[in-house]
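For reference, the entry.
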Amino acid sequence: MSSKPLPTHISLHPTSSLHPLTTITGTHPLTIHAHTYIHLRAHLNNTYSPLTIGSNCIVCEKAIVGLTEEAGVTIHEKGVVLENSVVIESKAIVEGTRIGEGTIVEVGGKVGSGAVVGKYCKIGPLCTVEPYEVVPDHTVIYGYNERRIDRSGTDALRAQTVEQHVDVLKKAEMAARKK
């Protein structure tokens, strides 16, 4: 958890961890739900719209979440929402309106403004979801933005893995603070 008091427009659940070196830009509401871990040097941008991050999410170093420029009025109203158990890896940029539960945006992946990504999707390294695109549940985007549907049926296992990952990150942070 952050060591300094947070501004009033930021709501951080007590079980979540927001590294003090995380950059937060903007004054729209920012809500971070339970058991979520925000790495150092992550950038949360609530300048142009509200930003909501669900439970058991991970936002990695140098990832950017939130609109980075003005967009349509409807996007401003909805804001950017990461549902539960979403992982945003390093250098990914997520401006989409809604990122579904259990979705992973891998290193350097980009989700354009207004895009809606379904549940348990995987956006591969350096892959792109275009602005305003709708990606169905269980879609895997890989290679040169090729797509397939994941029929493995591992949704519960993936959510459990993210939850365990958050626990490990928090324990590592606690151990580092004790040194």
Q: What stands out?
A: The first helix runs from residue 73 to 78. The chain has a mean pLDDT of 91. Residues 37 and 169 are 8 Å apart (CA to CA). The longest strand covers residues 139-142.
